[in-house]
Structure formats: C-alpha cells, structure tokens
Design brief:
GO terms for molecular function: nucleotide binding. This protein has 340 residues and is α/β, with parallel strands linked by helices. It is built from nine helices and 16 strands. It folds into two domains: 2-119 and 302-316, 3-Layer(aba) Sandwich (Rossmann fold), CATH 3.40.50.720; 123-253 and 294-300, Dihydrodipicolinate Reductase, domain 2 (2-Layer Sandwich). The protein has helices at residues 11-22, 37-45, 54-58, 75-84, 99-112, 126-137, 174-185, 304-314, 322-338; strands at 2-7, 27-33, 49-50, 65-68, 88-92, 116-119, 143-151, 190-198, 208-215, 220-226, 236-240, 243-247, 254-259, 271-273, 276-278, 289-293. Helix 4 (75-84) runs parallel beside helix 5 (99-112). The chain binds nicotinamide-adenine-dinucleotide. Nicotinamide-adenine-dinucleotide binds next to helix 1.
Length: 340
C-alpha cells in the first residue's frame, strides 16, 4: 500500500483526489498539509493526520508519496523538496510554469530515483477517448481537422487563477488539458502555431484563447477555451476524409455523419437559403450518407492512480510521461510567444 500525503487541501486535493484514490486498492490518503488553517481543520475533520509544516509531512517516514495540489507557482519548489526528502510525487497540472522549471524537476527525479508524475487526468475523459479512437481506427477516414473547445460563461473562477504570479489564466488552466489531449493523440511533431489570447474581462491573465496548430503530418487543429461564452460551441468537431463527427458536450450527445455512397454532383437538390438558393450548402443526400450515434469508447488503459502504483512498485511505464508534459509546456510557451 502506498501512503499519500496531500499538499494543498483545496478544491482538487480535498475532493477529486480523495475520491479517486478511494477507488484504488494500492493507494490511500493518510495526511495533509496546507498553509491555511481552515483547510487543515477540514482535513482533520475528514479523519486525516494533519501536519503543521511542510517539513513535518516530508519527514514522516510512513508517507511514500505526496500529491501537490497547490496553485501552480509553488509546484516546483514543493516537488523538489518532496523528492529530495525521499517521496514520490504526483503533481497537478500544469506541472510547472515553464519548461525550464520542469527540466530542473526532472533532473531531481532522475538524481533521486523518485517518481514524478503529472495528473493529466483528461486523457481518461470519455469524449476524448472517442475522438482518439476515431483518430486511430479511422471510421470516418483520416482525420485532417480537429476542433477542441470548452466554453463557459462564468469568467475565471476563484482567486489565484486571476494572477500571473500564481500561474493563473486559462491557457495554463484548461489549455493544458486540451493541448495535452491533442499532443497525446496526434502522432506527429507540431509544425506551426498561431494564437490569440483573450482579455475580455480585464484581468492581467488570459480569460481564454484560440490556438491554430498545424502538425507535420498535415493535421490541423483549433483549440479554444472561452469563459465568456453564454452559448457554447460543440466540445469536439472533427472532419475525416469520409465523414464528420460532432460531440456536443461531456454528456456525449452528438453524431457522426459518414459518407457511405456516391454523391450525385449533377443532380443536387437546391435548398432555399436566406434570399437565395444553394446546391453547395444542401444537406448531404440521404442515399449517400449514414448518420450514427456517438458510442462510448472503452478506455484502453487503467486509471491514473493504478498506473502510478504500478510505476512506483513495479517500474511500469507511466501513461503520463514527463517528456510529453514537457512538449505541452513548450507548446504553451510557443502560444504565449506568438500571441504577443
Ligand atoms: P484551490 O485554491 O482550491 O486549492 C489550493 C490549496 O493549496 C489551498 O487550500 C491553499 O491554501 C493551498 N496552498 C497554497 N499554497 C500552498 C503551499 N505553499 N503549501 C501548501 N498548501 C498551499 O485550488 P485548486 O482548484 O484545488 O487547484 C490546485 C491545483 O490543481 C492547481 O495546480 C490546478 O491547476 C490544479 N487543478 C487540476 C484540475 C484537473 O482536472 N486536473 C482541476 C482543478 C485544478
């Protein structure tokens, strides 16, 4: 059994990770440390051992690993202190504020032999698994255009996410997830990037962004995060050489329209469009297409904590590899740069 101490008993630490860990056999949360007294009280009320200082937690020999779930700017110092104290580390995303910080952390992980693994949990999201499956198995042919969006209307939540010094902003928040999914799926290096960050709400950090990414294999992607969108666009819109798929939301509503017959280009039936007629924009002929529902994909790998346990105990390969995490941070740096 791996005993885990949580550093940062806030939203993610106290709820998400505790619930996730409860489902796994090989790991258990035993204690917590937070700089805020009320969060320590919450951990105590939840039956955990609480530590008044970071060094108290790190010197406890019964703790095998720590989960870092603090604001982003302190991930680096906490990860390095934990590993040099002989603890393995699970770190919330974004792993670090820059590739430079991550390089320092990976060096310490290599030197100490302690595992450093980043919680890129959205690799297990069903909507993503469906699109990844489409990319690999090609039911609508080769995907050549991938649009991945998340839209909300509530602005930037909380306190520290509004501030640059804490690593706030949406590119470092939801952006990390969407870009991680994209790079995990598309098996080709990034060729070109252009991007636009949004500051509609007047914060010092971005409240959303649009990035256009072209891969060397020709795949083009649009990744968008918005926090001022009172009407959402679909979570995924992807085009393959033989069809189009749309997943509207996390409830997996959506559809796939696949070309299954020849389109009779000479006898297209026009539709009335505004004050004119159009054949070009007529719906696809029912004889030439089939509409299919979105079917839940079976996850092909075990969950995050099962993998973490296997990496620590059985030296298994991590599903979230540090070089992948680095590639995402490098892309984020590129997006910040080109959007200036
Ligand atoms: P939060 O503000 O709810 O909680 C952060 C906690 O860390 C607070 O209780 C705060 O007091 C504590 N803290 C701050 N500095 C500390 C320090 N030096 N030592 C110990 N504790 C400290 O924030 P959150 O929403 O839980 O986010 C925490 C981390 O989790 C961030 O890195 C965020 O990006 C990440 N996150 C990941 C996901 C995901 O889906 N993977 C979702 C939300 C947040």
């Amino acid at each position: 059994m791996l005993n885990i101490g949580i550093i940062g008993y806030g939203g993610m630490g106290s709820y998400h990770h505790r619930e996730l860990i409860k489902k796994e056999d090989g790991v258990q949360v035993v204690g917590a440390y937070d700089i805020k007294k009320e969060r320590l009280d919450a951990a105590k009320n939840a039956g955990l051992t609480i530590y008044e200082s970071l060094s108290d937690l790190l010197s406890d020999k019964t703790i095998d690993a720590v989960l870092i779930a603090t604001p982003n700017d302190v991930h680096k110092e906490l990860a390095i202190q934990a590993m040099t104290s002989g603890k393995h580390v699970i770190c919330e995303k974004p792993a670090m504020m820059s590739t430079e910080e991550l390089d320092d952390v990976i060096l310490v992980s290599n030197e100490t032999g302690q595992v450093f693994m980043v919680h890129q949990n959205r690799r297990w999201d069903n909507d993503f698994l469906i699109i990844q499956d489409m990319y690999q198995k090609k039911p609508i042919g080769e995907l050549f255009q991938i649009e991945s969006r998340v839209h909300g209307a509530n602005g930037i939540p909380g306190d520290w996410r509004h501030l640059e010094k804490h690593g706030g902003g949406m590119l470092l928040d939801w952006g990390v997830h969407l870009l991680d999914q994209l790079l995990f799926m598309v098996d080709s290096p990034v060729k070109e990037v252009s991007a636009d960050l949004s500051y509609v709400l007047g914060d010092e950090v971005d409240d959303g962004f649009i990035a256009y990414i072209t891969f060397e294999n020709g795949v083009k992607a649009l990744v968008e995060v918005g926090t001022t969108n009172f009407v959402k666009l679909p979570r995924w819109y992807v085009k393959g050489l033989e069809g189009t798929a749309v997943i509207d939301d996390w409830d997996l509503s959506g559809r796939i329209v696949k070309q299954t017959g020849e389109i009779d280009h000479h006898n297209l039936v026009p539709i009335k469009a505004g004050q004119g007629l159009t054949k070009t924009m007529s719906p696809p002929s029912e004889d030439a297409t089939t509409t299919l529902p979105i079917v839940e994909a079976a996850a092909e790998y075990d969950g995050f904590y099962k993998n973490f346990y296997d990496v620590v105990v059985n030296h298994a390969t991590p599903i979230v590899k540090n070089e992948e995490v680095r590639n995402v941070l490098a892309l984020i740096e590129n997006i910040f740069e080109v959007s200036k």
